[in-house]
Amino acid sequence: MRSFFSALVLLLLSVSFSFSQSTAKLYINASDPRVTISRHIYGHFSEHLGRCIYDGFWVGENSTIPNKGRIRLDIVEALKKIKIPNLRWPGGCFADEYHWRDGIGSRKQRPTMINTNWGNVTEDNSFGTHEFLELCNMLGCEPYITGNVGSGTVSEMNNWVEYLNFDGQSPLTTLRKENGRDKPWNVSFWGVGNESWGCGGNMTPEYYANEYKRYATFAKNYPNARLKKIACGASDGNYNWTDVLMQNVGTRMWGLSLHYYTVPKSWGDKGSATSFDEKEYFTTMKKCLFMDELVTRHGTIMDKYDPDKRVALVVDEWGIWTNVEPGSNPAFLYQQNSLRDALVAGTTLNIFNNHADRVRMANLAQTVNVLQSLVLTQGNKMLLTPTYHVFDLYKVHQDAKLLPLQLSVPDYQYGDQKIPAVNASASVDSTGAIHISLVNLDAAHTIPVKTTISGSDWHTVEGQVLTAAKFTDINTFDQPGNIRPVPFSHARKEGDQLVANLPPLSVVVLTLK
């Protein structure tokens, strides 16, 4: 009898353990929110690369596609809907071979150049400073300009800042007025070079730190425009670069950048955007989650020199990078966008939200027709990618207060490897509404999440979900609505707890009031 009873207890414990392992438990502290999730975490990137600018934002001279001054209006409206906060331009590697004076004045008289980084195509400079800033004005977003350190000069960047921001009399302001702009634009965000460890000059961190100080000295603040200067930071896990920059530059910069791409396979063969198995999907999500370690470790180094967190960590290039679509120009980096990419986006944005005390700006690469795009175009057709819909769902976090959370989740296991199946972030907005974003990475299992929220007397819950049957599912120009958010009905209040059942491969955003 004793052995039977022992076996029964062991069986019950096993069942209980199995249940606890398949249920996620979330605790959210809503009693004392302090850190703001900057809206600039939800920024984007527009480089002179492939069809991002030309045949993306910028249509032909006599295009029948609805446009205003050649700026494509359907893209503008789509980006306004997700409250795009900032747009980075002109690069990327292109920035360090771009000379801004070639892109102002009469378009017919602008010199051409060769885009040596991206396919040796001829750049006609028809889209330049005035056009970019008009685009930002139409979007209602802040411009983030990357200056040329690699092949430019200190004087060139200094003059560009004056041309854009000075509200007095000078030869450059006279030139600006002759080119059709009376008042300055007051551009605050300035990148001092891009990837200076690579395509931006192959510099050492010590050399770049000195170059940054020199360029930043002559990039002047004007009374109406105090610059937020962003130094070129590390690629991936180059922690020494961050250490050297913090030690030598410190709080003389507003932000320090970080670049990290989720590459499913390897840089030599990145993998397909649309044809992959569960093993490759699992590996991709594991690499995506590495962003949390990168942000944590780079942030810890920054804390050593800047314990008050005055310098922002600016992740101004991130996203999934796959092989180009078959038949497309390999230098144009055009790739489709699957449900997997939406899960990458949701997971990464949760990581950024949870590190909002240090991560205060980020830029997905890139906005239109390049890498992990929000928008794809084909002639007069335009489609919104699954990644776009994640940004639409997550816009509720912009400038909301981060709610600290603790999360205990089951593992998503493939072979002998495992990753956390669920990730999350939470915030409270100015109206007192609580927003919780949850991502279930598990390819096969619905995962119940039981949430306890302290410091909030909430009564109702509403939600939306983004999911599909397969992680390879995509939106196409013939079927642009395959993957889109729909109302989520599997969340309810049970006593004082919030219970939600997350479908496999899903992004869920809940609103509690």
Task: Walk me through the structure.
Helix 7 runs parallel beside helix 8 and helix 9 packs parallel to helix 10. This protein has helices at residues 2-22, 73-81, 129-139, 154-165, 171-178, 205-218, 239-248, 278-305, 339-354, 386-394; strands at residues 24-29, 43-45, 67-68, 71-72, 86-89, 113-115, 121-123, 142-147, 189-192, 228-235, 255-262, 312-320, 359-364, 375-378, 381-384, 401-402, 405-408, 411-414, 417-420, 422-428, 434-440, 447-454, 461-467, 486-487, 491-494, 497-502, 506-512. The model is unreliable at 1-20 (pLDDT under 50). The protein is globular and about 70 Å long. The strands form 7 sheets. It has an 8-stranded parallel barrel, surrounded by 5 helices. The longest helix is centred in the middle third of the chain and has 28 residues, at 278-305. 27% of the residues lie in helices and 26% in strands. Strand 3 and strand 4 form a beta hairpin. The protein has 513 residues and is of the alpha/beta class. The chain starts with a helix and ends with a strand. It contains 10 helices and 27 strands.
